[in-house]
Amino acid sequence: MSLSGKTLFVTGASRGIGLAIALRAAKDGANIAIAAKTAEPHKHLPGTIYSAAKDIEAAGGQALPLIVDVRDEANVYEAVEKTVAAFGGIDICVNNASAIQLTGTEATDMKRYDLMHQINARGTFLTSKACIPHLKRASNPHVLMLSPPLDMSPRWFGTHVAYTMAKFGMSMCVLGMAEEFKPDGIAFNALWPRTGIATAAIQFALGGADAMRQCRTVEIMADAAHAIFEKPARDFSGHFLIDDTFLYGEGVRDFDQYKVDPTAVLMPDFFVPADIPPPPGVKIGA
Fold first, then answer.
1. End-to-end CA distance of the chain
2. Which of 8, 126, 138, 248 is buried most, with the most CB atoms less than 10 Å from its CB?
3. SS3 label, residue 143
4. Would you call 98 helix, strand, or coil by DSSP?
5. Is position 163 annotated as part of the catalytic site?
6. What pLDDT digit, counting tens, does each position of 156-184 carry?
7. How far apart, in whole angstroms, are the C-alpha atoms of residue 215 and residue 219?
8. Short-list 270, 233, 240, 275, CA closest to 132
């Protein structure tokens, strides 16, 4: 199934995983609403909504760059309506926008706590809510959260409880909305990487250049998301998917293609449950 002519509303799509998902869909000829805050170049981070739009159009898609703060209800609804006006509807909503700070309770100031919860949990709820009326009219509607399985192991909470709560809030939207909107045939799923993904979060928050070498590229998440969107929405909802395990089930066998450095040992990501082992032949560091 091609995504040609489908319309995606993607938060945080100016760079990283969000942009990669948009570009993969653009290769099919999809329409992409780039819903992100970055209108001016950042001093450290590449990409704006306008550079992303050029990349999407060069890849074969149609792009609508929108300055969106997912914390602002009016801003989100306005962006959704502009998307519908431009492309005639919304087929897929991708909740990718996220904030991270890996600190313990005493080291987490409340301003940062609020930011993570407003962008991750509240922003996901709000963006999904705004898109749902239009998704109800789509032929194969999907909502995808870039969030982890709901594994209640204390190991994921003890060192950075505020961040874990915020990310799990996104996943709880999957759990609840998949059930709530089952009669409407809207699929709600979560996708999470087994390893670190080479993005700005790794480079600037989690270890710099050495850590980037131990990551996979954003393309693994883009390919997995694309495969999810190809599924019949009524039959494929409420899943918490790990990228390589899901792709293995879809027939992918070459996972070395996604390694930043073919010689490096892959860095494990947070939140991957112990009972979801890597595909055969895939080795992950400690």
1. 38
2. 8
3. strand
4. coil
5. yes
6. 999 999 999 999 999 999 999 999 999 99
7. 12
8. 233
pTM of the model: 0.96
Alpha carbon distance 237, 128 (integer Å): 15
* Amino acid at site 71: R
Nearest to 78 by CA among 141, 125, 127: 127
Please give the Cα distance from 16 to 169 (Å, whole number).
Answer: 21
Sheet holding 7-11, edge to edge: 62-67, 31-36, 7-11, 92-95, 142-145, 187-192, 240-242
The more confident residue out of 206 and 96 is 96
CB atoms within 10 A of CB 74: 8
- Residue 60 one-letter amino acid: G
Other CB atoms within a 10 A radius of the CB of residue 40 amount to 9
Name the token pair of 206: 């989690």
Classify 19 as helix, strand or coil.
helix
What whole-number distance in Å separates Cα of residue 70 and Cα of residue 61? Answer: 24
Collapsing DSSP states into helix, strand and coil, what is residue 83? helix
Residue with tokens 């100031």: 109
User: Which tokens go with 18?
Assistant: 């969000």
Both structure tokens of 34: 């780039």
In the numeric block, which tokens belong to residue 284? Answer: 């992950």
Which of 10-19, 192-201, 217-226, 269-278 is the least confident region?
Answer: 192-201
Cβ-Cβ contacts under 8 Å for 5 (sequence gap 6 or more): 29, 30, 31
Tell me phi and psi for residue 258, to 5 degrees: -95, 0
Q: Where are the extended beta strands (E) located within 196-253?
A: 240-242
Structure token pair of residue 190:
């979560």
What DSSP character marks residue 233? G
Is residue 207 very low, low, confident or very high in pLDDT (cuts 50, 70, 90)? low
CA dist 210 and 208 (Å) reads 6
**Considering 50, 77, 113, 163, which one is annotated as catalytic?**
163
